[in-house]
Amino acid sequence: MRVNFTVNGRPQEADDVWEGESLLYVLRERLGLPGSKNACEQGECGSCTVRLDGVPVCSCLVAAGQVEGREVVTVEGLADHARQRTEHGSCGTGSCGTSLDAAKQWQPKGDTDSQTGEGTELAPIQQAFIDAGAVQCGFCTPGLLVAADEMLEQNPNPTDADIREALSGNLCRCTGYEKIMDAVRLAAARQGEAV
Amino acid sequence: MDFLRPASWEEALAAKAEHPTAVPIAGGTDVMVEINFDHRRPEYLLDLTRVGDLYEWETGEQSVRLGASVPYTRIMENLRAELPGLALASHTVASPQIRNRGGVGGNLGTASPAGDAHPALLAAGAQVEAESVRGTRLIPIDDFYTGVKRNALAPDELIRAVHIDRADGPQQYSKVGTRNAMVIAVCAFGLALHPSTRTVRTGIGSAAPTPVRAKAAEEFLNAALAEGGFWDNGKIITPSVAKQFADLCAGACNPIDDVRGTASYRRHAVGVMARRTLTWTWESYRGTAARTEGVA
Amino acid sequence: MPGRNAPLGTPTKVTQGSKTKGGIGESTLRPDGTLKVTGEFAYSSDMWHEDMLWGQILRSTTAHAEIVSIDTAEALALPGVYAVMTYDDLPTDVRNYGLEIQDTPVLAHGRVRHHGEPVAIVAADHPETARRAAAKIKVEYRDLPVVTDEASATAPDAILLHENRTDHHVGHVDHPNIVHRQPIIRGDVEAARARADFIVTGEYTFGMQDQAFLGPESGLAVPAEDGGVDLYIATQWLHSDLRQIAPVLGLPEDRIRMTLSGVGGAFGGREDLSMQIHACLLALRTGKPVKIVYNRFESFFGHVHRHPAKLTYEHGATKDGKLTHLKARIVLDGGAYASASPAVVGNAASLGAGPYVIDDVDIDCIALYTNNPPCGAMRGFGAVQACFAYEAQMDKLADAVGMDRVEFRRLNAMEQGSLLPTGQAVDSPAPVAELLRRVKAMPLPPEQQWLTAGEAADVRQLPGGLSNTTHGEGVVRGVGYAVGIKNVGFSEGFDDYSTARVRMEVVGGEPVATVHTAMAEVGQGGVTVHAQIARTELGVAQVTIHPADTQVGSAGSTSASRQTYVTGGAVKNSCELVREKVLEAGRRKFGSYHPAWATAELLLEGGKVVTDAGEVLADLVDVLGEESVEVEAEWRHRPTEPFDLRTGQGFGHVQYSFAAHRAVVEVDTELGLVKVIELACAQDVGKALNPLSVVGQIQGGTTQGLGIAVMEEIVVDPKTAKVRNPSFTDYLIPTILDTPTIPVDVLELADEHAPYGLRGVGEAPTLSSTPAVLAAIRNATGLELTKTPVRPEHLTGTA
Questions:
Q1: Alpha-carbon torsion A87, A92, A93, A94, what sign?
Q2: Looking at the record's lineage, which domain of life comes first (chain C) (predicted)?
């Protein structure tokens, strides 16, 4: 079957989709967006977390056909999403994606180093994960970033217990979560300073 | 495999009538795992996420008509006063991501004894609104679970909503898992006090082939509360009554040993949860009653 | 170009400031950090190639059976299927592989020995087609009896897992179903026992833990025009894989070009091969690129686990609290194939007494062959299981003597110069007593943190968490301590070396160093540290880390806490050799301009050649000019020797790592649910090359230890030897709500034998975390608790 939907503000079309395919598979294998990760494919690890119409979900549990006409934000679009939130004010509804016109004018950034990503524009939560040492193997990172970014959107001043609850659907095996806590606290603090 | 995408409830019913083997999918929590892991290859997937009605709820004087696909997150956030037991149960469901997408309809459709909503629905005394092209019927929750992962739905029926009486008294919900978040129930317990009828209702999950009520325990407690005039005098429930209630709840279990826990532990834990939730709800009832009296 | 993301085979540039900032000792940031947070880092499962096929493995549904027949006809007939291969299709006579003993069939030959053993492989144009095809392969099994424990494995008439063994361990084991045996005998235990005023014994059971790395096994094999194959893979040791793959494929090693792709964690689980050979076989058979990605279910069958163990310990002490003796027997279940079992036996045995001075020791350790899942390397490697037992014993013994548990340990703690039971002196700092003192001195977390300003308890802070099982009822706090000893690097005479190629040249008017090793970056941060070392040694700001591949010599495995020591040592060594060459070039060009070129000790700093007095002699840009200076050199740590097979005596280890933990738990004693409130750790790291990474390693290792303490266990049915919980639904690892704050106190006492004085960091915290949590639960409940993980059943008498 064919599925049309919007990913990171850009209209996408996936063809010859098997009806049992997940959104995760379509993103990774058909749309060239492997940032969402395939760690468990049973909704237990959160590494495939994306925002579907603004709401964090496990993309492994979304059937591809269910996203017809919907809007998806993946880790690849997180920096853009955060920038637009800053520019247009808070947006928890998912309706703040790129407009069709804007999408048509989309250009790859020219000054980005293709090897290290240096020069890449990052969302505050992404920068905080790097700075706080919250990334080790990095496989859980994309899902955690999408979940943590959404939490800070809803709750700019979370307590530690709030952070833990919001991220309780994202497993990490490397860090013991301490540096992830540090990163979210750091992003919240920087967000607070910026206001 | 065919993917059916009805745009309305009527289309969904028609599709289910035409393809009774079609597997409804909304939040995907159960169905997608079975597909991802090659446990199931349905002929038709019936996507219900385009049926907006299923995502809405109506709060009436007496009861809440909760659309089958209202996500658990919405129940937690919006229906805590009306459906406190179900709201607590919703909070124990898996992870924030799952709660954002899954709803009560999925729990009921799968009818796994481990579904988190069941004990709360049993305790509250819900009715399942099932519909087909042939018509609509309300199935009392007590009659809904018919076996391990089996329910009372006919092949052409879909779950439209759940009707749950607005709480007339305190409700509680506890679930034991071997992790502090994101865990399938080893066993679970729901308790609702119904001061308007001077009854209590219970629900037990993961401790029998289906979700069950502890009817003997309810009857015992109803009698004990009536006998002691507890509903009126608001006295503390005596430890011996609480213990007897807990023992009867444990006795209502018919659990198995499995990889998540032993039968013996499940019985024990249901007893502990029964005693604790009784204490919490009763303390809350006494507190509310006292305050009400005070204000009056 | 395989992968649409960060292209492999192109280098990663690491720029850090304008001077020689970002050297060792600084918490420089990961060079791969930006790619990892943007989703652009190419993990092995992200590989993609035009026209590629998907591989699928058919695995045995039973643990022990003869294969009567395999019928692949229906599978082959399925449209979209390009190849189906079984044992009979293997290209050469080499049809087994293995880390040390080549006992593992590439595809089952007439018999399967464990649940989930690979039987056939399929390549098709879509993963669903490949799955459907695999399901159509008809395998007829005739079940055989299973051996699942020591009694059934070593019975005189036990069915043998491997008949006609020819490996080098078979001569010294009592039964062919024992992989390896290592006794450690020192002093006279019988005489020492007579001196003991107190004797305590215990039998301990350690469950089977899974590495549960988040990135499942995966990779892409691309057939090459020369008849060889290019393999993009997540592994811990490229060259070890290559050595095992090449003979099976019948190709010379230089025709198999391996490139490390992104690795989603490892923890020992990628030490053995998984899908490597299968992907190559299918690629060579079909002439098309083949990608294989395990799902989580398959991952549980696709790698070895931590050995479950039964440990029987007897310790004695005098009434003034001095340890008299230790008699111990450790039985490890190695499962169906050898994997790393022999080395795990050596570790468990030689470190079985822990970081304590005990003169009279008799330890016997074996690993079994059974029909259970194969077990091998996992973080802590044998030392973990032993630590669980000896630390439980220390508490019991302290109680028997009537001493404080920490003081008892400190009284018996080893220090520099102490002898291990192997007779080897610990010839670097061993601050065991100090670590215990530090961890005990940390402030305790406040009581009853679940009490909030309002009326309701915050259930997130209570045992049971969001499940709302207690509002404080039945909750009791407990505190426990433990300390452990882990060896660093490969032991027992293994030639443990690494290779580094370092080049220095001027690029864009700036001196740049390029570091090329085959080290597997699995998340530990080796790439960060290599750049730091190059900056420190070569005085450059910009370091390029070349992708790890087999175009450079072996780096050894990313395991045994060894990479910073050994490959870090190799990078340092090659940098030093490059520096010498650069200085020679400088002397040739500029020596006549300044006498210091001949007389002073010269350094490279901030892009310049400077004297040790700080005088600048030349810019590196001018010294190098158009030249590039490159060195590839192997570097080894000092040699070790095998343990004597009868007595276990010998200079077996090169270095040790010590960590101590204090666990604070709150237990719902009625429901048997545990919440760990805090896990404080003190660890000696010799020298923290990157403090941020060091702390991250300690916290991560600590949390894996917490997991095996309270929730993690692969459950194997003792009747069928089948795995009962191969999923993240039923194999639980700690979530962020299960993990406490982990304050870390890092001690830096240099080991003079090691580069910069550093010590391996990654494993030690995994050892002591588990027994500390168990001790805290015992403290809260008063129960003996001899098995880990502790389940609610064990705390409520409902097992």
A1: positive
A2: Bacteria
Residues A13 and A82 reside in one and the same domain: no
Measured between alpha carbons, how far is B121 from B171 in angstroms, rounded to an integer?
A: 11
- Residues 110..139 of A with a Cβ closer than 8 Å to B: which? none
Residue B276's contacts (CB-CB under 8 Å, 6 or more residues apart) are: B174, C469, C470, C471, C473
User: Cβ contact (<8 Å) for B37 and A61?
Assistant: no
Our CA-based measurement puts residue B91 at a distance from the nearest CA of chain A, in whole angstroms, of 10
| % of chain C surpassing 70 pLDDT | 97
Same domain, C59 and C117: yes
Is B192 part of a structural domain of the chain?
A: yes
Q: Which of residues 90-149 of A touch C (CB under 8 A)?
A: 113-118, 120, 122, 126-127, 129-131, 133, 135-142, 145
Closest CA to C405 of C135, C677, C214, C200: C200
Q: Which residues of C touch A178 (CB under 8 A)?
A: 695-696, 699, 739, 741-742
Domain co-membership, C442 together with C540: no
Distance of CA C54 to the CA centre of its chain: 29
pLDDT grade for A94, boundaries at 50, 70 and 90: very low
| Structural domain span for residue C27 | 12-42+497-636
The reported pLDDT for the residue numbered A119 is 73
Rounded CA separation C777/A118 (Å): 48
Is B182–A44 a contact, with Cβ atoms under 8 angstroms apart? yes
What is residue C140's three-state secondary structure?
strand
CA distance C231 to C278: 11
Nearest Cα to C567, choosing from C578, C554, C576, C577?
Answer: C554
Q: What is the pLDDT of residues A102-158, one digit of tens each?
A: 434 434 344 444 456 667 889 999 999 999 999 999 999 999 999 999 999 999 999
Name the pTM for this structure.
0.96
Q: Is the pLDDT of residue C591 over 90?
A: yes
Helix, strand, coil shares of chain A as percentages rounded to 5?
40, 10, 45
In this prediction, residue C20 carries a pLDDT of 66
pLDDT in tens, C218-262: 999 999 999 999 999 999 999 999 999 999 999 999 999 999 999
How far are the Cα atoms of A182, B221, C343, C413, C649 from residue C186, in angstroms, in the given order? 48, 67, 20, 18, 8
Report the number of distinct structural domains present in chain B: 1
Which domain, by its residues, includes B180? 171-295
- Those of residues 72-91 in A touching chain C at CB distance below 8 A are 74-76, 78-79
Q: Which chains contact C through at least 3 pairs of Cβ atoms less than 8 Å apart? A: A, B
Mutation target vs B (from A18, A19, A36, A140; most B CBs, 10 A cutoff): A19
Please name the residue of chain A whose CA is at the shortest distance from the CA of residue B91: A165
Numbered residues of chain B with Cβ closer than 8 Å to any chain A Cβ: 1-3, 5, 25, 27-29, 31-33, 35-37, 41, 45, 47, 49, 94-98, 100-101, 180-182
Q: CA C433 to CA B40: how far, in whole Å?
A: 58
Question: C669 and C623 in one domain?
Answer: no
> What are the chain C neighbours of B88 within 8 Å (beta carbons)?
468
Give the pLDDT confidence of C15-29 residue by residue, as tens digits: 443 346 899 999 999
Print the domain residue range for A159: 77-96+120-194
ipTM associated with this complex? 0.96
Residue C122's DSSP bridge partners are C56, C84
Q: What is the mean pLDDT of residues B105-126?
A: 98
Chain B interface, mutation test: which of A16, A36, A57, A164, most B Cβ atoms within 10 Å? A57
